[in-house]
Write a structure and sequence with these properties.
Elements (H helix, E strand, L loop, with lengths): L10 E5 L37 E4 L3 E6 L4 E7 L5 E3 L20 E2 L3 E5 L4 E11 L15 E8 L2 E13 L6 E5 L2 E6 L15 E5 L2 E7 L8 E5 L3 E2 L2 E4 L4 E6 L3 E12 L3 E2 L2 E2 L5 E14 L12 E2 L5 E4 L14 E7 L4 E5 L1 E6 L6 E6 L8 E6 L15 E5 L33 E2 L16 E4 L9 E6 L9 E3 L12 E11 L7 E6 L5 E6 L8 E5 L4 E3 L12 E4 L13 E12 L5
Parallel strand pairs: 2-10, 13-22
Antiparallel strand pairs: 1-3, 3-7, 4-6, 4-8, 5-7, 8-10, 9-10, 11-12, 11-14, 14-18, 15-17, 15-19, 16-18, 19-22, 20-21, 23-24, 24-28, 25-26, 25-29, 27-28, 29-30, 31-34, 32-33, 33-41, 34-40, 35-38, 35-39, 35-41, 36-37, 36-40
Length: 593
């Protein structure tokens, strides 16, 4: 085999660093290496990024050729890029330092390159050697670092191309719509100026209605937009991938619309950052919005919820004027069947919500619990909107109570994410078990009645499938043993229980059940008779689950049993049955004393 004398081609790519030569004066090349190599050092503050070299236009990178043994070398640029002279700082106007004397080629060992054009561009380093050299490029760089060796007479040439993706400056572009009709269009080249606001168009909107702002920015490859509309709701709205934003206006008056901020941010795709260089640009929206009184009634607009601090709030169809003394005009009824409670609670405070004047807040004189059923009514005539409309009365609107998060660990047993085991584990690890005599695999491989599946999932990548051919419903129990897997086990208490369920069209099942404990502490039934098929629907058990004593991971009572029984599905038509269950959720209920 031919003996190749060895050199090292050491190339360092240093993004936006100092131009001082002592950046590399301490480097000493080894005497003997196996081939030609180079090192590319990217920004150390951006770890775990892909290999592609991506930079913003009008920025520079300093290149240092530390080759050993080369008889000559040359940096070569493409049209639109420039070499910079020494002596600049990162705060200087870089175009003033363009080295017009060298054009697109430089034989200096050091090259400061200003990227002056967008799109794909390449920087070439062409070195000559008296001895043969060979390239060595890692696989993850091969698409962006191309090395070719050749000969010219007695000299050996190493020609290396470093490929860059240069991102153009972001140029915001957008339009504004009213009721679907365009009222303003601003292109990338338009530069609105606040000095010209007296000439801007004025768009009239009724209070509680609004405009649609549509992002049309493409130059610079932005991937996010933020609309800054100080007098709108929301006043600041950011979207990722969405192109439009609806903004409502409530206060009477005439206002400047606001500003668009178009951004390019690093995104993660399949767990890998795309390494796009960040950038942003803003542009004034040259439009005035005149808000006039609404012709629509001022009414309750749902969103009736209990906050974690027991404050009840609800939305109305307009921005409210501050009010006081309205407490007696609200009736808040609290029921708790388990405690025999059915009572109207006194409203201690009624007020406009701070920071969002489209909501009214109610504070009660006594504690409330998420096991209560609460309704709110209003019969006053003096609460006004910002545009002088009177809030209409409403009756018996149900409050959505505040619940804590799922007590079961995420992405685990109750989510069917772990896989493993065989047919008698439903292929979902040893946390599940089906007695062999139940015949889970009686219809053949791939046709198991209970089986972990990746065909459908509400969250994550898997769910539990129940599949049955056109036969009578057999009894096949799916035992689960993860109920107390959390770090603190399963505390005693009363729990709201739910599954996300996907029922395949054509399936005629009406009910499935879950049994808690060994022996059974609770029988819970899940009614799926009227849910929409072909989509994921959250289904709640017909009653809370009661766990009378704390459970640990070694307690036999931690067991659950999923069952589809003929006695629960009386009178169903014979058909193939197929449904998927995902995300078992247990939320602890607050017991009223």
């Amino acid at each position: 085999m031919k003996n190749i004398k060895n050199y090292i081609l050491f190339f360092s790519l240093l993004a936006l660093l100092s131009c001082e030569e002592d950046s590399y004066k301490g480097y000493t090349a080894p005497d003997d290496l196996s081939d030609v190599s180079w090192l590319i050092g990217l920004d150390p503050n951006r770890p775990n990024i892909d290999a592609k070299f991506k930079v913003n236009i009008d920025t520079y990178i300093s290149f240092f050729d530390l080759s050993q043994g080369a008889t000559s070398h040359e940096w070569i640029l493409e049209d639109g890029d420039h070499f910079l002279k020494d002596g600049f700082t990162s705060s200087d106007t870089l175009s003033k330092f363009i080295n017009e004397d060298v054009g697109l080629s430089s034989s200096e060992s050091k090259a400061h390159v200003l990227f002056g054009k967008s799109g794909l561009t390449k920087i070439r380093l062409r070195n000559k050697f008296t001895e043969e050299v060979s390239p060595n490029v890692s696989e993850d760089r091969a698409a962006y670092v191309i090395a070719n060796s050749s000969t010219e007479g007695d000299e050996h040439i190493m020609d290396v191309e470093f490929l860059f993706d240069v991102y153009a400056n972001i140029l915001p572009a957008f339009s504004v719509l009213k009721d679907g009709a365009e009222v303003l269009n601003v292109t990338e080249t338009d530069i609105p100026d606040i000095k010209d606001e007296s000439t801007w168009p004025v768009i009239e909107v009724e209070a509680a209605t609004g405009l649609t702002f549509v992002d049309k920015s493409t130059t610079g490859r932005p991937n996010r937009v933020t609309w800054l509309i100080p007098d709108g709701v929301p006043s600041q709205a950011g979207t990722l991938a969405e192109l439009s934003q609806d903004v409502k206006f409530y206060k009477l008056g005439t206002y400047n619309a606001g500003t668009i901020r178009s951004l390019r941010q690093v995104q993660t795709v399949d767990g890998v950052e795309d390494n796009a260089p960040v950038a942003s640009a803003e542009k004034i929206i040259p439009l005035k919005v005149k808000v006039i009184q609404s012709s629509q009634p001022f009414v309750f607009d749902k969103a009736l919820t209990e906050n974690e601090n027991e404050v009840i709030e609800f939305r109305v169809t307009g921005e409210l004027k501050a009010f006081s003394g309205e407490e007696a005009n609200f009736t808040v009824n609290v029921k708790n069947a388990a405690k025999g409670l059915d009572e109207d609670f006194t409203v201690q405070t009624a007020r406009v919500k701070e920071g969002n004047a489209t909501f009214i807040e109610l504070i009660l004189s006594a504690p409330i619990y998420n096991s209560d059923v609460i309704t709110v009514s209003y019969n006053g005539t003096t609460i006004l909107s910002a545009d002088e409309r009177v809030l209409a009365p409403f009756a018996n609107q149900k409050v959505q109570m505040h619940f804590d998060n799922n007590v079961l660990p995420s992405n685990s047993w109750g989510s069917f994410e772990p896989e493993g085991g065989g047919v008698n584990n439903a292929f979902a690890t040893g946390k599940f078990f089906i007695p062999g005599g139940n015949g889970n695999g009686q219809f053949g491989a791939g046709e198991e009645i209970w089986a972990r599946s990746t065909d459908q999932a509400y969250a994550g990548g898997a769910s539990m499938r129940y599949k049955l051919p056109n036969v009578a419903i057999p009894t096949v129990n799916l035992f689960g043993f993860g109920l107390a897997d959390g770090p603190n086990g399963m505390p005693a208490g009363t729990y709201q229980v739910s599954y996300w369920v996907y029922v395949e069209p054509g399936t005629t099942l009406t009910t499935f059940r879950m049994e808690f404990g060994n022996p059974v502490l609770d029988y819970l039934h899940f009614d799926i008779s009227s849910i929409e098929k072909g989509k994921w629907v959250r289904v709640f058990a017909d009653a809370p689950a009661v766990i009378p004593a704390d459970l640990t991971s070694s307690d036999a009572k931690r067991r659950t049993t999923l069952r589809v029984l003929a006695e629960d599905n009386v009178g169903i038509t014979t058909a193939e049955q197929l449904m998927y269950l995902d995300e078992l959720t247990l939320i602890k209920l607050e017991d009223r004393p």
